[in-house]
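Table S2 (text version). Query chain:
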Amino acid sequence: KTEVMLQQPRDKHTIQDPTIYLETRTGEKVMLKVVQEFKYLGLIITNDNSANRDITKRISQAAAAFAKYKRTFVNRYVSLKRKVALYKIIVQTSLLQCIGIRCLLKEDVDRLEAFQYRSLRSICVWSKVDFKSYNDVYERSGCWSVTTLISRERIMWASKVYSLENYRIPKILVMRKNMKRVSEHQTFNME
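Corresponding structure-token output:
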């Protein structure tokens, strides 16, 4: 099962979808299916390189997880520390898993941030009429902002890439300005 997707540039110029054939072992030519989106490692990747569908899916999954445990989250007899721990394990995981590898726009991060703010505000049992800033909510709950969590994930990913062997493709792509080709066998040295 092989599919092809052409990612369109962000400007309004569109490129025609490719027609690609593969030859099977029997010599038969098979045309590959061209798709507009596909799932890869739980991420929805679209041909316009937008994270909008993926963010919407994540928010709906996190909202469903939050709704399932809503009675626990708003219960005044359960400690805030336990509610936040449950939120991080169940809701935040579905909201932010592998999100650091996406190319996100500010609007995408703002949508994730707004969902987390509303959820944590409910957990802290503040009414909607009480004005509480994002910082008040994050300080009381002890949670980090979505922006901070994404930054941490990206830093951890970069450190993993940096620790790879010099011939590994992710390291070559990320560190290519500082890498020099040594031989014909695709081995590289760091300068």
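Notes on Table S2: Strands lie at 3-4, 21-23, 29-31, 33-34, 37-40, 43-46, 179-181, 188-190. The first helix runs from residue 52 to 68.
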